[in-house]
Specification:
Layout: E1 50-52, E2 62-64, E3 76-78, E4 83-86, E5 89-94, E6 108-110, E7 112-115, E8 122-129, E9 136-144, E10 153-160, E11 166-172, E12 181-184, E13 194-201, E14 204-209, E15 212-218, E16 227-234, E17 249-260
Parallel strand pairs: 3-6
Antiparallel strand pairs: 1-17, 2-7, 4-5, 5-17, 7-16, 8-13, 8-17, 9-10, 9-16, 10-11, 11-12, 13-14, 14-15
Length: 263
């Protein structure tokens, strides 16, 4: 199993149930790496690590979204055929084949890959190569919501194709969102693979790019176990830009991992 450089130590104060005051957690030190003090987290979801190299479809961990759409602002219908495994990579493909009739009445089809189980506190990482194209978004995120009988909770990484030298982070806790922040990258995210990480703790979220801390929030953060998602989409939203579709597009994922922080 890959042991991420920023996830070698499980840490933070104990957090047990939704709504409980968890107190302070062990924060990262000045270098942006975890401190080696504090107690392990009592997790709220599956404690099973993930280390998927995407050599093939692993139906024990993942499922392919198929035959439905999120609705506005999304303009894609999720199709299992648009999640492809080839040459040790996972490809999420966006195209217009058979649309709109076979694309949930949307103009495009695309791929979404999500876990079967719900996961809790820990370190989530993916190696991804985005797309340099206005109007699309490559995403890696954690989510649960009313469809699963929960409040809306989410932690996001999104790379818009019209600004591949930036990416957006966001979170929603207890149905309250609006925490978007755009972060400059020191590279073109479509030119090569880079590692994007979410470190989720009982009262803190840290976002890393290539093991470097780029953003941190404290306070009220999600406290419900969530599924892990990768998806690729277009839609009607000003921050995406406009898609001038000339043929199929694809996002590549090299691997995804989850390291639980548990006692």
């Amino acid at each position: 199993m890959r042991i991420p450089a920023i996830g070698l130590l499980a840490f933070a104060m104990m957090a047990c149930v939704k709504g409980k005051d968890t107190g302070d957690t062990s924060k990262t030190n000045d270098s942006g790496q975890p401190n080696d003090s504090g107690q392990p987290v009592e997790n709220i979801g599956s404690n099973t690590p993930i280390d998927d190299q995407f050599d093939s479809f692993n139906s024990d961990i993942w499922e392919k979204s198929n035959g439905w759409s999120n609705g506005a602002p999304f303009a894609v219908g999720w199709q299992s055929d648009n999640v492809i495994f080839e040459n040790g990579k996972m490809i999420l493909k966006l195209d217009d084949e058979g649309c709109p009739s076979s694309c949930s009445d949307q103009p495009y089809a695309s791929g979404e890959y999500r876990t079967i189980d719900f996961y809790g506190y820990g370190l989530y990482e993916t190696s991804m190569q985005a797309v340099d194209k206005s109007g699309v978004v490559a995403a890696f995120f954690l989510y649960t919501g009313p469809y699963f009988g929960d409040d809306w909770e989410e932690i996001d990484i999104e790379i818009p194709g019209m600004l591949v030298s930036q990416y957006q982070v966001n979170f929603t806790a207890n149905n309250v969102g609006g925490h978007e922040k755009v972060i400059d990258l020191e590279f073109n995210a479509s030119a090569d693979f880079h590692t994007y990480s979410i470190e989720w703790l009982p009262d803190q979220i840290n976002w890393y790019v290539d093991d470097t801390l780029v953003n941190s929030v404290d306070g009220t953060v999600p406290d419900t176990a969530m599924k892990v998602y990768q998806n690729f989409w277009t839609g009607d939203d000003e921050w995406l830009g406009t898609l001038d579709y000339t043929g199929p597009l694809q996002v590549l994922y090299d691997w995804t991992s989850y390291t639980p922080y548990t006692n």
